[in-house]
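User: I'm putting together notes for a lab meeting next week and I want to include a structural view of one of the chains we've been expressing. I don't have a solved structure, so I'd like a prediction I can at least talk through. The sequence is below, exactly as it appears in our construct file.
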Amino acid sequence: MSYTKLNRSAATLTKNRTEGSISPFSGMCVTCVDGCIGMCEIGKSAYRGPEVLYPQPFGIITSASEKDYPVDLSHFSIMGTAVGAYGVEADSDKATFPKVTIDTAVGHDKGIKLKVPFIIPGMGSTNIAKQNWEGLAIGAAICGTILTIGENVCAMDDGSEIKNGRIIRSPDMENRIKLFQDWQEDGYGTVVVQANVEDTRLGVQEYVIDKLGVEAVELKWGQGAKDIGGEVKIKNLEKAQELKRRGYIVLPDPEDPDVIQAFEKGSFKEFERHSRLGMVKEESFLQRAEELRKAGAKYVFLKTGAYRPADLARAVKYASKAKLDLLTVDGAGGGTGMSPWRMMNEWGIPSVEIWSLLYQYLSRLDEKGEHIPDVVVAGGITFEDQIYKALALGAPYFKAVGMARSPLAAAMVGKTIGKRIEEDQIPVYVERFGNKVEEIFVTATELKHRFKERFKDIPTSAIGVHGYFERLSQGLRQLMAGNRKFALNYITRDDIAALTQDAANISGVLYVTEVDKEEVDKILSS
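Assistant: Thanks for the context. Below is the predicted structure for the 526-residue chain, given as structure tokens.
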């Protein structure tokens, strides 16, 4: 069985000529004919070269692997029960699903309160994040969760002021933070600022701590979509040159006279901006965490990607030694930026596997009495059943899950519907619910009551995020109630069962027919 689709994908706008007859090991048409215009990735690469590395159309999409991984969360099932209740009296009139509490808290002092156990990880300098930031920031704030500002924002900001190689002002960064802070309620959630190599050199985190009131910062080792630095496309020569001066890798070289001439002639229309690879060393990592605390950071996080097991072990151990507040581990397969398409499909440890290793490593440190940071896991989670399974898989260490593509999708849909309402061009599929914001968006009435006059300032993109999160919240409460767990801290690994032997072997979770064996024997023998 092949887990991979080769040589054609909607992500690269390519397909095979012989769609019904494709070589399974190469992905090529079984008959590659002289005279074909090149619709597949090989053919398109012949005339567009490295452009075909990346998902398209750039700037208006997020993307995720279409590889069919051998094990995923669908290979587990949630084990409900008809007996008892945890966290509430075992009374049918009291143990109702609306009584389930899904709020939590993270950080060394549990000072970051969350209304929901799902957060929005790093959204950085990509066009798709910037264009939808209003919905994400306001949506995350009114839902009471964490929103992370990703890498490269300050350097990509045309309005940034940089002096002696250090950032002293970034209007884009100021706006991103302010949007969240202006809508934050009762201290729930927080805005986090991430940094890669270039951000660290620019002093981005020191700037946001000192000037913009940010309390939480995140060190970054990578993400689940790629094992190289962040990339974006640049359509402007002057900006490409400026980014090279700011320390980025820009391809082709925007200062090369021949390249400039080719760009001006229209031979190519975009430059690529790449970040550098980070080089992790224990001593410098611990030193940087301490530097950030001395700079005023109240909370220090680490985000790592789907690197090999030894790197995951380093992340766990170093986070423990540095007494970090939160560790986020991202499984392979998806991204909100411009990750190379084949890389996104073919590198890294998939989510279930890396989360299972993570659980093992945390357990080992826990047995030795070492510091265990709060943990968030990410990697293709979109719905409440997956949230429950992920939390159970890593219980009691996993405190929340990270989701980026799905909240962004909710924000984009909300934005689009809002525009259609303004233009009086509501699609038939949506119009059946009404033709006003309050009619179409089912949570709008609640928000209108809650925010009163301010409601008019909430964009439909943020209402979209809120509606999506409300759906997840109610769905999660229903699943937890069915398992008689009325608060998150009662979730255990016994709440799920593996449906395949492979899933059981990888995760250490019991195969479904092995669950409750001892209790079954007691019941039947009594």
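A couple of points you could mention at the meeting. Residues 231-274 form one domain. The mean pLDDT is 94.

User: Perfect, that's what I needed.
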